[in-house]
């Protein structure tokens, strides 16, 4: 029997690619393809936050900066959001025939109930509208979330059939279970190059900033390698305070490095 040399196409196809390397390569290709658009989006973001460089001024002029883009975006976003949320239900379900009217109404009530009780729905829709006004697009990803935590409950103590008091007992309870929404700007979404639509893209990389506590929680659930996550946690134990105190540009670079690190764990 001939020994495999690894030089044939058949042998090359049999080799499983490293998921982490594959994600990094796709991320780099998508980022390179979006270089021009990302530069334009960066200019828009700086104009929205009133970022002015020294080189943008002119000698011998007053160089007043009128922050015009921010109030325009805020006012238009309020108008659209108010129009959207002043009517219920938020999502209308149309029946396909006369026999499915009652079924459509029940589906509509169920969807409305979950949307009203989703803690992130309103804020994420507001963020989505602002992204759409700023960059022309935004991305919202719905998911189902289930949070379990430890709570203290008073458990009655019964002695010889008599209630003699209570004791504190720590139990696991479901804190929240339902729809969860998260909005991403175009800076965080990297579709496959030359894709006409997101739905038609063979792959899409969404870069997400994940706090260290969330990484540790996922590692305890055996989603990620716990040893690697704990190594990151030891190096980033003051990430929230540092990010708040950083200047605008430095905070962006630090956040981007953390996000790339998170993309490695996504494999």
Write out key terms for the chains shown:
267 residues, disordered C terminus, 48% helix, alpha+beta, two-stranded antiparallel ribbon, 10 helices, two-stranded antiparallel sheet, 4 strands
Strand content: 15-25%
Question: How would you classify the helix and strand content by structural class?
Answer: alpha+beta
Instruction: Tell me the Rg in angstroms.
Output: 26 Å
- Number of strand segments: 4
Integer average pLDDT = 78
Order of helices and strands: HHHHHHEEEEHHHH
N-to-C terminal Cα separation, in Å? 36 Å
Largest beta sheet: what is the strand line-up? 1-2
Total of DSSP H or I helical runs spanning 4+ residues: 10
Biggest sheet character? 2 strands, antiparallel
> Given the C-alpha coordinates, what overall shape results?
extended
Helix content: 40-55%
Low-confidence stretches: 237-267
